Amino acid sequence: MTLFISDLHLCAQRPAILQLFIEFLNRQAGQCDALYILGDLFEAWLGDDDDGPDNARVISALRALHDSGTAIYFMHGNRDFLIAEKFAALSGCRLLPDPSVIDLNGTPTLLMHGDTLCTDDVGYQRFRRLARNRFSQRLFLNLPLALRRRIARRLRAQSMSRTLAKSPAIMDVNARSVAAVMRQHRVTRLIHGHTHRPAVHDFELDGRAAQRIVLGDWYAQGSVLRCDARGLHLTTLPLSG
Ligand code: MN
């Protein structure tokens, strides 16, 4: 079985979600061939020296699943794109470029975080180009961690006030961008997260049946896409208590 998750946005302010995720990882030990984390595992990641209180717990739970024989793949989201080799080595995750095509039970499947599909959000795409620039990343990572935390808090506050002013349509994927990237990679199936709008969209792409599966966030519950030879199931995990 192969599992896909994204948009957990793990942070100290939501301990129940952290607990749900740790229990989810523990339950998968010995059950699951591969786990794909398609970005925004963390609410924020300020560099692999980020010593936030729960990071060590998450890393060791991932490591235990990896050691049980599950291949774990991590793709960057727009919140945790500074995750790098040290995190990968400690957790046992393999870093996966965005986009990537995998063979999922015989079907070529395109995996993305999803933020690059939101091309109507011009302001965000401009910020993304700067944030993903290697030179600006190196400058940022050379700052003391406490200063990085302050900068991240300010950027977050700005982004939240901008998000409130944006229409929901602007923050969803652009259908032409979806078609273009699926054509470019010659796939009829795409799995992504980011928009927090879990759904299975069946549509037609150049006369062929195509499918876009959107993973859900982990706010009020967990969201997991389970895939085996029998098919794909988008499921939820209830928060206990
Ligand atoms: Mn995202």
Please tally the helical runs, counting DSSP H or I stretches of 4 or more residues.
7
Radius of gyration: 18 Å
Binned strand content: 25-35%
Give the averaged pLDDT, no decimals.
94
List ligands, each type once.
manganese (II) ion
Task: State the CATH topology.
Answer: Purple Acid Phosphatase, chain A, domain 2
Q: Termini, distance in Å?
A: 28 Å
Q: Note the run of SSEs as H and E.
A: EHEHEHEEEHHHHEEEEE
Major sheet attributes: 6 strands, mixed
Structural class: alpha/beta
Query: What is the CATH H-level superfamily?
Result: Metallo-dependent phosphatases
Name the quaternary structure. single chain
Helix content: 25-40%
CATH class: Alpha Beta
| Unreliable stretches | none
Molecular structure report:
The relative contact order is 0.18. The protein has seven helices and eleven strands. Helix 2 links the parallel strand 2 and strand 3 (71-75). The radius of gyration is 18 Å and the shape is globular. The longest helix has 21 residues, at 145-165. The mean pLDDT is 94. It is of the alpha/beta class. It has helices spanning 15-28, 55-67, 85-91, 122-131, 134-141, 145-165, 175-184; strands at 2-5, 34-37, 71-75, 93-96, 100-104, 107-111, 189-192, 199-205, 208-214, 221-228, 231-238. It has a single domain (2-237), classed as Metallo-dependent phosphatases (Purple Acid Phosphatase, chain A, domain 2), CATH 3.60.21. A six-stranded mixed β-sheet has the order 4-3-2-1-10-11. The protein has a five-stranded mixed β-sheet with strand order 5-6-7-9-8, covered by helices on one side. Helix 1 runs parallel beside helix 2 (55-67). Helix content is 34%, strand content 25%. Manganese (II) ion is lined by residues 7, 39-40, 77-78, 113, 115, 194.
